[in-house]
Amino acid sequence: MGCFECCIKCLGGVPYASLVATILCFSGVALFCGCGHVALTGTVTILETHFSKVASDHAMLTDVIQLMQYVIYGIASFFFLYGIILLAEGFYTTSAVKELHSEFKTTICGRCISGMFVFLTYILGVAWLGVFGFSAVPVFLFYNMWSTCATMRSPMANLTNIDSICVDVRQYGIIPWNATPGKACGSTLGDICNTSEFYLSYHLYIVACAGAGATVIALLIYMMATTYNFAVLKFKSREDCCTKF
């Protein structure tokens, strides 16, 4: 076997679907975790500065945000390891499916591990659908505030009293109803929208939501690849059993 044939054989064992899914998963998780962490910090700054100036009013929210930031660290670490494991499993199963190497044989243990990855990836995919939906909530809240500010600045609005236009974050359940001031109106609201914290947090939440969506797509590709490999390995195991008799 020449060098060219050997290279072609090696390239035939590359799990391209798992490779694309791994790159997409790493990118999506990195965007979600990195942007989400910074956006949460900016959200706390905005609330403390403009909507809840008494620390006790938003103490629980601060604790929840800190907990979410620690969870983000765990998510990033877990998916870094899980992506590498799935990629390695993809290399093994692809070689076994295509029978590129004689030492790569299907075993009951190997099929059980492949089935476990199929089940675990399915569970993670459903969970990330929830994460994707949850990450859209702050985007919706910031968009409402941004659109209100855009309405006040629009010359077509023809507003006579901009102080009557307010955004009350208490109605979203973010802070309690006894928080002061709890809302921003008129020029104060416009100043909030012009701050760097608001601009940065708003766009980071959008990127984090996009990252969560990319992770969902990556897990979907993982599910298709692992399910196909598991089905083929199971079929080959039955074929091997039939040829022994």
From TrEMBL:
Pfam families: Myelin_PLP
Protein location: Membrane
Species per Swiss-Prot/TrEMBL record: Dicentrarchus labrax
Protein name: Glycoprotein M6B
Highest taxon in the source lineage: Eukaryota
SMART domains, A to Z: PLP (SM00002)
Membrane topology of the entry: Multi-pass membrane protein
Keywords from the UniProt entry: Membrane, Transmembrane, Transmembrane helix
